[in-house]
## 1
Amino acid sequence: MSIFSGLMANLTKDHIVAKQGFNRWLIAPAAVAIHLCIGSVYAWSIFNPPLIKQLGVVTSAADDWSFSSVVWIFSTAIVFLGLAAAFAGKWLEEVGPRATGFLAACLWGGGFLIGSIGISTHQLWLIYLGYGAIGGCGLGLAYVTPVSTLIRWFPDRRGMATGIAIMGFGGGAMIGAPLKTYLLSLYYQAPEYLGKVTDLNLITEGGRRFVEVAGNNVEVVVASISDMAKVPVPGPEGVYVVGTGDTGVASVFITLGIVYFVIMVIAAFSFRVPAKNWKPDGWVPPAADEPSKKLVTDNHVHIDQALKTSQFYRLWLVLCLNVTAGIAMIGVAKTMITDIFGPSLPNIVDASFAATYVLMISVFNMSGRFIWASLSDYLGRKNTFHIFFVIGILLYLSIPYIATQASINPAVTWLVMFYGATMVVFTMYGGGFATIPAYLADIFGTMHVGGIHGRLLTAWSTAGILGPFVITHLRENSVENAINSLVQKIDPATFQAKFGATTAHLNELVQAKTISISQLMEIAPAGTVDPTPTLYNSTMYVMAALLLVAFIANLTIRKVDSKHHVQNSHPELEIDGIK
């Protein structure tokens, strides 16, 4: 009991007030460490392929989870991130960053462990509960804790301070992507191989494929050359037994849960808060008439009063739409680049290339958070977001053209253009996250900026649903249309010979995952253009439209009316205190 009491005492806010002469730069490494751990959520797309092949291992089996069902795990984590940040923001101001950081470590690490049980037992709801709900709450607490702490330690460089912390969140996938890829290959076990398709007598029943082994029908999957190029340890194409082997993803969850917990606990115990009325030596607040400081206030708005201002909801819309556009691409990044360039450049865009792409997303996401947030100290937050939206619209509109040209005329040039366009988008996506806390501090003051930031992150929760919904819904429609179009071009006899069933059973075969676009392309007439690269075109047009709305919302943001300031709305509160 004494150990527990001592632990709780070390977590309280009163216990972590920094002494005079404390070096504020010591807070930065702890903040970055926590955000690096939780930022691995951006490498979620690494888990999508093995999760949808958990039973088939080399390719999806009939009872495997669908892509649309697992991609929502990432969305659930983002939803609970925003909800936890919104509800715990005020509590953070009361208990301090060490307590919330420690709780975040327990939730994030524990979420991975619960998720691993769901994967091992093939219970999808446990992954949603563990990684999505519990882990998502840990994300929310771990996200706002370092940000609000650094803003108080760096009132002279708010943009840079938030950029430092949130840079770590963007960079989490930079470490997480190769780490997850390595661990998946380490724990991967190939399923039982029966031989080539031509050497076996395949039976099709209810859309599923079977092979008779020792008098019993054994369910199998047929893996093409393309399928085997995507697994961590490539093997021969052919027929594999369902339910044998291991994708390794459950073991990866256990490993990461333990590692992240340890790192986050150490970082949380490194946090300190500045003493009351502390400010950097020699710092003088900027003059209100400086061009880039027109929205900056010397006053403070109470957390409850902030919700009564139009500025809060306009900023909410700005963040929501900017995140929706970016998160839709991040959640399916590995699948997207494989779909667009895998058919045309298979020797370049393989599993390793796709994993590296996810890694580079993290690099640009991370660098964008620091660079754009630091530039916003000079450009102003409003102007910075204007840049995001104008350039973003142009880049999203360019991607469908690039994808279409890649399908018609395969060339590395289109891959380079796609890579460049998306990486710039990801710098601005990360830059938006890093700049928004400083934007809030400029408009509402620093008194309750952590809590206000937490409530604004409900925009992230909304985007976490909206973005993946848009991209999965539009992609599924595109896949369905592509399959129907290809089937119409294929000779019925050739179709039946390939799949052991007639085109009348098309829906049944699709639902059992026996048919895919790549398999249809193998028997399509010569000269047929692979529709896979254009599966995301409609999504990009929608994202460009969302950024246009965000641009208009940002354009209308003005200073908060003085009636909302603390001295007018809550005169009983101390301006320098946090109550």
## 2
Amino acid sequence: MLHSECTSTLSLVTDELIPHLKDIGRGVEKEGLRVKPCAGIADDTHPESLGSTLTHDSITTDYSEALLEFISPKQTNIDDTVTYLSTLHQYTLKNIGDQLIWPTSMPCRIDGEESIPIARYGRSNVGTLKHVYRQGLGVRYGRTMQAIAGIHYNFSLSDGFWKAYQTKFVQQQGEEQTVDGFGEGGLQDFKSAHYFSLIRNFRRYSWILHYLFGASPVLDSSFLANHPRHNLDKLGKNTFGLPFATSLRMSDLGYQNSAQEELHISYDSLGDYVTTLAKAMKQSYGPYEKIGVKNGEQYIQLNTNVLQIENEYYSDIRPKRVTKSGEKPIAALKERGVEYIEVRILDINPYLPEGISSQQMRFMDAFLLHCLFSQCPQNSDTRCTEIRGNQTKVILHGRDPELTLERNGQQVPFKTAATELLDTIMQTATLLDKAHDSFEYTSAIYAQQAKVDDVALTPSAMLMQAVEQGVDFIDIAYAQAEKHKMHYASLKLTQESEQDLIEQAAKSIKAQQKIESEDTIEFAEYLSNYNAS
């Protein structure tokens, strides 16, 4: 399903370009709370056997000391990515005693905000900066929101693809096209422009992801302690939610952020994105000025600006570039352009041990390629309103059989819009199957169409069905956590994999110690330099 003003460049994907589709690079960042047998957040420090959270490449923490984050390396084989995530789960569960890894995006039982320990990264300046940034998130938005977990999906195409695609594109569009028009220019400029086109189209069509993969229609009552004016229904003794919701994690309830409501970060081009984001990072905000940077001698936020750092901007999708040591992400993007994109809206599927499956990844690849090949103009204010409206509808009411979406100012039944979109995505899935000599990508589309035809197959409906049978959210999630732990215990962690992770842990601890030993200035000076850069 394309908007009326959009065109497709699928015709450019000819036989000589198709083989490059085998070289899609992907990585997964999967979060999960460590929880105690009582279903409360673990209050101990990150186990030393898992390594340093500052320097470990694969096992770290996000906001909380208890919020694990597993990071798979960039890989071109989907099954290898799933296997790597499985290995990280196996190794971690073996090293956290009787604790479990919480299998849902919405958190376990929360005994007040102070029960959520903020992550620590050692005594180096960079480690202290990471900790203070998280302190800032806590004082700005509350710790409860930061206990929410998710899955980030990193996606990139090879230089071989981009060179071939640029050649075809310029031939079709003519030599007079500018870089902003996606025509001739340096390869990196071309890549960045098209990644931003992908991002804009992702925002148009991402409502389908909330429906297909949303898995947070309910939450525990303890999450609402600081949300007295919520509009959720009581669905169980300690369970609240909305009857047709798909992803409360992505609703305003999950990401309340009044300071960012007035931000207008532009995705029209790399230059506009960098400029508008940099402005927000330098723009002071009155309520944060009242909080102050320090409480006595303790730093509680990095600065009083709308954004302490780039990552504080809660976007559904981000353009990314691997940074050099000490380099800010925005500087890396400005200097060297977009390297890959990071999808940030995926819930953890509690019914999957890794929280995500190879089938879902194949769908994501086909979906993101559809977004790349759908050449749409930049989003007007009117179109942005339509985009946000459709996203909100599906997040809060996605399983409502009467749901309609807005398309070009007209109301369209949800099932019609979803089926038309999946039919269009099937074209890119066919190309991927041709590249891989398989039927797995088209099969992934058929599996998603089945969810459109039968809402009961969606993970949000599966979770809601259990609630409707009288089981509280906490009990459902805890049972799944135990099930996953038993699953991993039944698998044999190879001696090679275990030894590799033991060595990674030891190496990361030495790397942290080295960083700490090389600091030459006090943190106050380090922070001043950081904020000034």
